[in-house]
Amino acid sequence: MTGPGIDHPRVAVIGDVGGHLGELRAELARLGVPDDGRGPLPPGLSVVQVGDLVHRGPDSEEVVRQVDGYLRQQPGQWVQLIGNHEAQYVRRAAFQWSPALDPRAADRVQAWWREGLMVAAVGLSVDGEQLLVTHAGVTSGFWVSVLGAPATVREAVTAIRGLGDDPALFRAGCMMQGRDPDPLAGPLWAAAASELAVSWAGETLPFSQVHGHSSAWDWDAGAWRLPPDLAAHAHLDEEDRHVTLILPGGRIVGVDPDHRATPRSPWRGWEAGGPQAVVEVIR
Ligand SMILES: [Mn+2]
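^ thats the input. predicted complex w/ manganese (II) ion below
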Protein backbone atom coordinates (compact mmCIF):
# COMPACT_ATOMS: atom_id res chain seq x y z
CA MET A 1 0.00 0.00 0.00
CA THR A 2 1.25 3.43 -0.84
CA GLY A 3 -0.28 6.81 -0.55
CA PRO A 4 -0.09 10.11 1.25
CA GLY A 5 0.89 9.72 4.86
CA ILE A 6 2.23 6.24 4.33
CA ASP A 7 5.94 5.52 4.17
CA HIS A 8 6.02 4.94 0.45
CA PRO A 9 9.02 3.14 -1.04
CA ARG A 10 11.76 5.42 -2.29
CA VAL A 11 15.39 4.98 -3.21
CA ALA A 12 18.26 7.41 -2.91
CA VAL A 13 21.53 6.76 -4.71
CA ILE A 14 24.26 8.59 -2.80
CA GLY A 15 27.43 9.42 -4.68
CA ASP A 16 31.03 9.28 -3.54
CA VAL A 17 31.26 10.38 0.10
CA GLY A 18 35.06 10.45 0.29
CA GLY A 19 35.28 10.32 4.08
CA HIS A 20 33.15 13.43 4.60
CA LEU A 21 30.99 12.36 7.53
CA GLY A 22 29.27 15.73 7.81
CA GLU A 23 28.23 15.60 4.15
CA LEU A 24 26.88 12.06 4.52
CA ARG A 25 24.89 12.95 7.62
CA ALA A 26 23.51 16.15 6.12
CA GLU A 27 22.24 14.22 3.10
CA LEU A 28 20.79 11.45 5.28
CA ALA A 29 19.06 14.06 7.43
CA ARG A 30 17.58 15.61 4.31
CA LEU A 31 16.27 12.15 3.38
CA GLY A 32 14.55 11.85 6.76
CA VAL A 33 17.13 10.11 8.93
CA PRO A 34 16.61 11.34 12.50
CA ASP A 35 19.17 12.68 14.96
CA ASP A 36 20.80 14.95 12.35
CA GLY A 37 21.47 12.03 10.04
CA ARG A 38 22.95 9.76 12.70
CA GLY A 39 19.86 7.66 13.38
CA PRO A 40 18.24 4.65 11.75
CA LEU A 41 16.93 4.70 8.20
CA PRO A 42 13.24 5.60 8.15
CA PRO A 43 10.66 3.11 6.86
CA GLY A 44 10.33 3.06 3.08
CA LEU A 45 13.78 4.53 2.37
CA SER A 46 16.39 2.42 0.63
CA VAL A 47 19.86 3.86 0.15
CA VAL A 48 22.35 2.77 -2.48
CA GLN A 49 25.80 4.21 -1.88
CA VAL A 50 27.93 3.93 -5.00
CA GLY A 51 31.26 3.34 -3.25
CA ASP A 52 34.27 5.52 -2.49
CA LEU A 53 32.94 6.10 1.00
CA VAL A 54 36.42 6.80 2.28
CA HIS A 55 39.76 8.56 1.95
CA ARG A 56 39.60 12.20 0.80
CA GLY A 57 37.96 13.83 3.80
CA PRO A 58 38.74 13.77 7.52
CA ASP A 59 36.28 11.18 8.90
CA SER A 60 36.64 7.95 6.93
CA GLU A 61 36.64 5.72 10.00
CA GLU A 62 33.44 7.22 11.37
CA VAL A 63 31.76 6.96 7.95
CA VAL A 64 32.66 3.26 7.89
CA ARG A 65 31.37 2.81 11.43
CA GLN A 66 28.00 4.41 10.66
CA VAL A 67 27.54 2.44 7.43
CA ASP A 68 28.54 -0.74 9.24
CA GLY A 69 25.61 -0.09 11.56
CA TYR A 70 23.18 0.12 8.64
CA LEU A 71 24.60 -2.98 6.98
CA ARG A 72 24.36 -4.96 10.21
CA GLN A 73 21.04 -3.63 11.52
CA GLN A 74 19.08 -2.60 8.42
CA PRO A 75 20.60 -4.71 5.63
CA GLY A 76 17.41 -4.59 3.59
CA GLN A 77 17.62 -0.81 3.37
CA TRP A 78 21.30 -0.08 2.62
CA VAL A 79 23.10 -1.33 -0.46
CA GLN A 80 26.83 -0.70 -0.29
CA LEU A 81 28.65 -0.83 -3.60
CA ILE A 82 32.38 -1.29 -3.83
CA GLY A 83 34.41 1.59 -5.24
CA ASN A 84 38.05 1.60 -6.21
CA HIS A 85 38.88 3.11 -2.81
CA GLU A 86 37.21 0.21 -0.96
CA ALA A 87 38.92 -2.25 -3.30
CA GLN A 88 42.21 -1.16 -1.73
CA TYR A 89 41.21 -3.16 1.34
CA VAL A 90 39.74 -6.30 -0.22
CA ARG A 91 42.62 -7.22 -2.54
CA ARG A 92 46.16 -6.13 -3.25
CA ALA A 93 46.17 -2.34 -3.24
CA ALA A 94 46.17 -0.82 -6.73
CA PHE A 95 47.54 2.55 -5.67
CA GLN A 96 49.04 4.40 -2.74
CA TRP A 97 46.73 6.41 -0.51
CA SER A 98 47.76 8.23 2.63
CA PRO A 99 46.49 8.13 5.22
CA ALA A 100 45.10 4.63 4.83
CA LEU A 101 42.10 3.55 6.92
CA ASP A 102 42.91 2.52 10.45
CA PRO A 103 43.05 -1.29 10.86
CA ARG A 104 39.62 -1.57 12.48
CA ALA A 105 37.87 0.27 9.64
CA ALA A 106 39.91 -1.62 7.04
CA ASP A 107 38.80 -4.89 8.67
CA ARG A 108 35.18 -3.78 8.49
CA VAL A 109 35.43 -3.00 4.78
CA GLN A 110 37.12 -6.32 4.14
CA ALA A 111 34.40 -8.12 6.09
CA TRP A 112 31.65 -6.40 4.05
CA TRP A 113 33.12 -7.85 0.87
CA ARG A 114 33.76 -11.29 2.35
CA GLU A 115 30.23 -11.50 3.74
CA GLY A 116 28.52 -10.15 0.63
CA LEU A 117 27.35 -6.98 2.36
CA MET A 118 29.35 -4.91 -0.15
CA VAL A 119 28.71 -5.75 -3.79
CA ALA A 120 29.73 -4.51 -7.22
CA ALA A 121 26.29 -3.92 -8.73
CA VAL A 122 22.64 -3.46 -7.89
CA GLY A 123 19.62 -2.85 -10.07
CA LEU A 124 16.69 -0.49 -9.75
CA SER A 125 13.32 -0.66 -11.39
CA VAL A 126 11.53 2.67 -11.21
CA ASP A 127 8.13 2.90 -12.88
CA GLY A 128 9.30 0.38 -15.44
CA GLU A 129 12.68 1.97 -16.16
CA GLN A 130 15.53 -0.41 -15.45
CA LEU A 131 18.73 1.09 -14.08
CA LEU A 132 22.03 -0.63 -13.30
CA VAL A 133 24.01 1.00 -10.49
CA THR A 134 27.76 0.45 -10.23
CA HIS A 135 30.62 2.55 -8.93
CA ALA A 136 31.96 3.79 -12.26
CA GLY A 137 29.55 2.42 -14.86
CA VAL A 138 29.62 -0.51 -17.27
CA THR A 139 31.25 0.26 -20.60
CA SER A 140 29.98 -1.20 -23.84
CA GLY A 141 33.15 -3.29 -24.11
CA PHE A 142 32.83 -4.69 -20.59
CA TRP A 143 29.13 -5.40 -21.15
CA VAL A 144 29.85 -7.45 -24.27
CA SER A 145 33.22 -9.05 -23.58
CA VAL A 146 33.09 -9.71 -19.85
CA LEU A 147 29.37 -9.95 -19.11
CA GLY A 148 28.17 -11.54 -22.36
CA ALA A 149 25.76 -8.73 -23.30
CA PRO A 150 22.98 -9.31 -20.74
CA ALA A 151 19.72 -7.80 -21.97
CA THR A 152 18.25 -6.97 -18.59
CA VAL A 153 19.45 -5.31 -15.41
CA ARG A 154 18.64 -8.44 -13.43
CA GLU A 155 20.90 -10.51 -15.69
CA ALA A 156 23.62 -7.85 -15.55
CA VAL A 157 23.54 -7.77 -11.74
CA THR A 158 23.79 -11.57 -11.63
CA ALA A 159 26.68 -11.58 -14.13
CA ILE A 160 28.64 -8.89 -12.28
CA ARG A 161 28.17 -10.54 -8.89
CA GLY A 162 29.16 -13.85 -10.45
CA LEU A 163 32.57 -12.37 -11.24
CA GLY A 164 33.52 -12.59 -7.57
CA ASP A 165 37.16 -11.53 -7.29
CA ASP A 166 37.84 -11.83 -11.04
CA PRO A 167 40.55 -9.30 -12.00
CA ALA A 168 38.32 -8.11 -14.88
CA LEU A 169 36.04 -6.50 -12.30
CA PHE A 170 38.93 -4.48 -10.88
CA ARG A 171 40.57 -3.57 -14.19
CA ALA A 172 41.75 0.01 -14.09
CA GLY A 173 41.43 2.22 -17.12
CA CYS A 174 43.06 5.44 -18.20
CA MET A 175 42.75 7.01 -14.74
CA MET A 176 45.40 4.61 -13.42
CA GLN A 177 47.35 3.93 -16.56
CA GLY A 178 47.31 7.58 -17.52
CA ARG A 179 47.11 6.97 -21.23
CA ASP A 180 44.53 6.00 -23.80
CA PRO A 181 40.99 5.00 -22.82
CA ASP A 182 40.69 1.27 -22.14
CA PRO A 183 37.55 -0.30 -23.66
CA LEU A 184 37.64 -2.99 -20.96
CA ALA A 185 38.04 -0.68 -17.97
CA GLY A 186 35.97 -2.27 -15.22
CA PRO A 187 32.95 -0.86 -13.37
CA LEU A 188 35.14 0.26 -10.45
CA TRP A 189 37.39 2.38 -12.65
CA ALA A 190 35.84 3.45 -15.98
CA ALA A 191 36.25 7.19 -16.53
CA ALA A 192 32.83 8.77 -16.98
CA ALA A 193 33.53 10.61 -20.21
CA SER A 194 36.35 8.97 -22.15
CA GLU A 195 35.65 5.35 -21.21
CA LEU A 196 31.98 5.05 -20.18
CA ALA A 197 30.11 7.62 -22.27
CA VAL A 198 32.31 7.32 -25.35
CA SER A 199 31.95 3.52 -25.33
CA TRP A 200 28.19 3.83 -25.78
CA ALA A 201 28.30 6.48 -28.53
CA GLY A 202 26.41 5.17 -31.53
CA GLU A 203 25.14 2.18 -29.53
CA THR A 204 21.76 1.48 -27.99
CA LEU A 205 21.87 1.14 -24.23
CA PRO A 206 20.35 -2.16 -23.06
CA PHE A 207 19.23 -0.32 -19.90
CA SER A 208 19.92 2.89 -18.04
CA GLN A 209 22.79 3.30 -15.60
CA VAL A 210 23.64 5.32 -12.51
CA HIS A 211 27.26 5.68 -11.44
CA GLY A 212 29.67 7.66 -9.29
CA HIS A 213 33.50 7.76 -9.42
CA SER A 214 33.94 10.58 -11.91
CA SER A 215 31.94 12.99 -13.98
CA ALA A 216 31.48 13.79 -17.65
CA TRP A 217 31.45 17.44 -16.60
CA ASP A 218 34.61 19.11 -15.40
CA TRP A 219 33.37 21.05 -12.36
CA ASP A 220 36.55 23.10 -12.09
CA ALA A 221 36.84 24.10 -15.73
CA GLY A 222 33.08 24.37 -16.24
CA ALA A 223 33.25 22.32 -19.43
CA TRP A 224 32.23 18.96 -20.80
CA ARG A 225 34.81 16.22 -21.00
CA LEU A 226 32.70 14.76 -23.81
CA PRO A 227 33.13 15.07 -27.54
CA PRO A 228 30.65 17.62 -28.94
CA ASP A 229 28.30 15.02 -30.44
CA LEU A 230 27.82 13.45 -27.00
CA ALA A 231 27.81 16.72 -25.09
CA ALA A 232 24.80 17.70 -27.19
CA HIS A 233 22.86 14.93 -25.42
CA ALA A 234 24.12 15.67 -21.90
CA HIS A 235 22.41 17.68 -19.18
CA LEU A 236 23.86 19.27 -16.11
CA ASP A 237 22.02 19.63 -12.81
CA GLU A 238 24.18 22.03 -10.82
CA GLU A 239 21.95 22.05 -7.73
CA ASP A 240 22.14 18.27 -7.32
CA ARG A 241 25.56 17.96 -8.94
CA HIS A 242 24.31 15.31 -11.34
CA VAL A 243 25.10 14.76 -15.00
CA THR A 244 22.72 12.92 -17.31
CA LEU A 245 23.52 11.64 -20.77
CA ILE A 246 20.49 10.65 -22.85
CA LEU A 247 21.18 7.96 -25.42
CA PRO A 248 19.05 5.57 -27.46
CA GLY A 249 17.71 2.94 -25.06
CA GLY A 250 18.14 4.88 -21.83
CA ARG A 251 20.24 7.33 -19.87
CA ILE A 252 23.51 7.37 -17.96
CA VAL A 253 23.30 9.38 -14.74
CA GLY A 254 26.48 10.45 -12.96
CA VAL A 255 26.09 11.28 -9.27
CA ASP A 256 29.68 11.78 -8.08
CA PRO A 257 29.65 15.16 -6.30
CA ASP A 258 33.43 15.36 -6.81
CA HIS A 259 34.29 15.98 -3.17
CA ARG A 260 37.99 16.53 -2.59
CA ALA A 261 39.77 17.23 0.70
CA THR A 262 37.15 19.97 0.92
CA PRO A 263 33.60 18.90 0.09
CA ARG A 264 31.64 20.41 -2.77
CA SER A 265 28.37 22.16 -2.20
CA PRO A 266 25.55 21.90 -3.03
CA TRP A 267 25.09 18.24 -3.90
CA ARG A 268 22.42 15.60 -3.42
CA GLY A 269 21.71 11.95 -3.89
CA TRP A 270 19.70 10.81 -6.89
CA GLU A 271 16.19 10.03 -5.72
CA ALA A 272 13.49 7.84 -7.18
CA GLY A 273 10.09 7.02 -5.88
CA GLY A 274 7.19 8.83 -4.39
CA PRO A 275 3.60 8.18 -3.42
CA GLN A 276 2.65 6.84 -6.84
CA ALA A 277 5.93 5.27 -7.93
CA VAL A 278 6.67 1.58 -8.22
CA VAL A 279 10.24 1.05 -7.03
CA GLU A 280 12.13 -2.21 -6.78
CA VAL A 281 15.73 -2.85 -5.73
CA ILE A 282 17.14 -5.72 -7.79
CA ARG A 283 19.84 -7.53 -5.85
MN1 LIG B 1 36.12 5.99 -7.62
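Residues 52, 83-84, 135, 213 surround manganese (II) ion (CB under 6 Å).
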